[in-house]
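Ticket #4471: complex job returned nothing on first submit. Input attached below:
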Amino acid sequence: MTVKVQREDFDIGAELDSLTEGRHGVGGLASFVGLVRDIHGGAEVSAMTLEHYPGMTERELERIATEAKERWPLDEVLIVHRYGRLEPGDRIVLCAASSAHRHAALEACAFLIDWLKTKAPFWKLEATGGADKWVDARESDDEAAKRWRETSG
Amino acid sequence: MTVKVQREDFDIGAELDSLTEGRHGVGGLASFVGLVRDIHGGAEVSAMTLEHYPGMTERELERIATEAKERWPLDEVLIVHRYGRLEPGDRIVLCAASSAHRHAALEACAFLIDWLKTKAPFWKLEATGGADKWVDARESDDEAAKRWRETSG
Amino acid sequence: MKVLYFAWLRERVGMAEETVTPPEDVATVADLIEHLKTRSPAHAEALGDTRVVRCAVDQEHAQPGDSVRGASEVAFFPPVTGG
Amino acid sequence: MKVLYFAWLRERVGMAEETVTPPEDVATVADLIEHLKTRSPAHAEALGDTRVVRCAVDQEHAQPGDSVRGASEVAFFPPVTGG
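Support reply: We reran it on our side without changes. The output follows.
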């Protein structure tokens, strides 16, 4: 299991090769690369800055990688996540899972990226048309409202 | 859409980068790499030779790539498939799909590799313990029996 | 007409490719198989079990009843075993 | 106790980190928020809408009723927006 949180870009080929090199029981390797899009919510995005919580981010990513290994018969799990300033077309995240069985690898990879894209401890500051704006997490707001209400009653 | 059927190995990083380079509307890139396992059906495999039907293979792969683009809102689809002699740990196939939406990319990638691993026009000759043996396609045999029976009656 | 054989069908027939001019009454894939079986004992053996013989006419998958008239390339092969 | 702020909470409070020694009666995350709000108008404004404030105690997600006693690091941040 490998988890990296880094400012630098990553080399997809080198990262993926490291998962399978010398391992002859691996039938398949599923991976997903997330990239910065130039459009978000209809507005043009010129850049984005990802802030995170150093230390806690790594712990949370290791936790979800461990959960994937518990749910599926995986050989290896890899997560590489960038932070800092990123521009459209830049790579943000790579997640990958290898297994003797292709469906295990594919499902684990989908599970990882769904979690990473919605629940990983990152905050997005988007530059749209000159102005910098923190991206809202709308659905979580509603859930949160309920959560805080329950304990304040 | 890119389809390659080749004897040589491929460079995962270079192939995947070519799908997203300079395209800023792509949010995600899902991919799968299939590798030769050293075990098949309980027997140790020392090597495998993939035979194919040059010309028809490319047409069939282009057809399934086109079908994926019709089913999901994809930006690009890539299939690279090797033939010839391969050893455990060698890469056999790479398929990838890119899209503005991660679920489209993930589902299309799973669709492609399921088709490639079961229905692509390749025949496997496995070397197990000194002997070379053509791999059977059991399920298809039964279907086939029915098919030929229907027309011979 | 060019006839191609792949995988163990190629090995059993003993060749990868041959050129045949089938008689006038060969209309379908099934007819062509019966004709090819008369060419040699190896052909008869290789093409004997039609449950495990697949066919493509001009690089399109074909059924036993499909026409081979005017085809330039007919291929026979076992069920595919995938990549 | 070290208190950390992230994203727009950091901007509104006007600092990324501060060291606080809360009074004895601060037992929970909710208590700590009330205490921090007394430190400055910026704190009061930033931490005012608890619907959009999340907390971690010693790098573990925490609920408003969870204890902060003995904690060495408490962080406040908006709901995550993913990678």
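The mean pLDDT of chain A is 89. Closing as resolved unless it happens again.
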